[in-house]
Design brief:
Strand content: 25-35%
Shape: elongated
Number of strands: 3
Distance between the termini: 30 Å
Largest sheet: 3 strands, antiparallel
Length: 94
């Protein structure tokens, strides 16, 4: 038994009652830049394929400004989107 199975049992969840509702695979490329860690995620889920660009920083407000400046410099529009798990869940059949 693994740690997940043990935790499910502790929570009173029957392992046999669990079924797969989706699958998500992500590949990540990272590059340290002066503003922080720039990460490009490529994700595949439920016949979908998408990309997400992130800037990981230690301070939220200055990081947000740095990201906005970087995107403007690269002429890339900023599009707000749900996170990749939410995107996968939205494509799962009911």
């Amino acid at each position: 038994e693994g740690a997940v199975a043990k935790k499910l049992q502790e929570l009173g969840i029957e392992i046999a009652s669990i079924h797969l509702i989706g699958s998500l695979k992500t590949a990540r490329a990272e590059k340290q830049i002066p503003q922080g860690l720039l990460a490009l995620d490529e994700s595949w889920y439920n016949q979908q394929h998408d990309f997400e660009l992130e800037l990981e920083v230690t301070e939220s407000e200055s990081g947000k400004q740095a990201f906005q400046t970087l995107m403007a410099d690269l002429n890339i529009p900023i599009t707000l989107a749900p996170n990749k798990i939410q995107r996968m869940m939205r494509t799962t059949a009911p």
